[in-house]
Amino acid sequence: MKKLILTxxxxxxxxxxxxxxxxxxxxxxxxxMGWSTWNKFAHHIDEQKIVGVIDAIVESGLRDxxxxxxxxxxxxxxxxxADGFIHEHPEKFPHGMKWLADYAHSKGLKLGIYTDCGTQTxxxxxxxxxxxxxxxxxxxxxxxxxLKEDWCNTPNQNPxxxxxxxxxxxxxxxxxxxxxxxxxGTAKPWRWARDIGHSWRTTGDIGPFFNKDQGKADQGxxxxxxxxxxxxxxxRAYAGPGHWNDPDMLEVGNGLTENEDRAHFTMWxxxxxxxxxGHDVRDMSEATRRIIMNRDMIAIDQDSLGVQGLHYCTEQGxxxxxxxxxxxxxxxxxxxxxxxxxxxxxNWQDFNLTDEEVSGRSTDFNHTRYxxxxxxxxxxxxxxxxxxxxxxxxxVPSHDVVSYRLIxxxxxxxx
Length: 415
Prior knowledge:
- By secondary structure, this protein is α/β, with parallel strands linked by helices.
- It has two domains: 33-301, Alpha-Beta Barrel (TIM Barrel); 310-407, Immunoglobulin-like.
- The chain contains eleven helices and 18 strands.
- Strand 6 (146-150), helix 7 and strand 7 (178-181) form a beta-alpha-beta unit.
- The chain is globular, with a radius of gyration of 23 Å.
């Protein structure tokens, strides 16, 4: 009898306990694209700047290329009222965040905002600890579409519980909001965050430098493009539609050379990373515009198969990357991280590989002739060979890439 009573009590308790909320689905079936205030403006933000950026994203064609989120990072905050609800800074955002969200929506864009799991944000503004459901409701009422949640000032907090709490709060608030975890990879969120958020940072903050030596003056506070690639490239098994490894925002247009900007953008696309711009889009060079508007390369990032690229090997100082794509195609990139240009004799038969870890796809160069399409010159460059031998000789400039889409013949591996 005691066993029966205990069983009935357990069933009753289960029935009364609400099921854990799940994140909003289908908000990031491909990696999110947009722009953020932090890399360029840091805490120097206001309503006028954001309106100008919104207008520039539309007028430049960036919106039509897929950059739809305009994200306001740290330092938008005012104070909490007597009931604990957060408000925007009244002088920086005089019309209010709801007005700004409505403006973004009227232009076909979405508005993002920032908070922190702790007592304060990284810049010392009010964090969401103890106010998760209030903040989620506030964001929903404002019309927010994207939330980045940082991990500063979180002593003795469990990241899994903290981020699950905000995820549940966003779901309960009733408005679909993309959740971007910014825990810096310390607690290995790729192992537990798939059902909590839509992307998770895998590294510390990025800086506007390509290699570690260029960032020495930063005293190690931020990571270079190459350091981040090296930390992110082993995590591909955890990424996929709706849940992405996030190697941080883009520094394209913030002081790198054109070669470095091109390589940086290419590798983020190869890694199926969120493409969040970080430069001043109101005043950008033609070179920057060409790089971030390269629709052929964006298509690699946004490919619906949703597989992060594979760092296959390193030869002669060059890194060789492959990314399986929908329909049997492959993206193939050679990255030169060295200080000198490298000339390489390419033999396709050296790259017969099977992506056993993630996609199960094989390049099958000895049976398949792919059309070779250059993703930066936008020209076809013949076809791959079925026989061993030097196919072509390539020179990859320092801190640059050579990148191709290998187009499979009709009917080959179409899935």
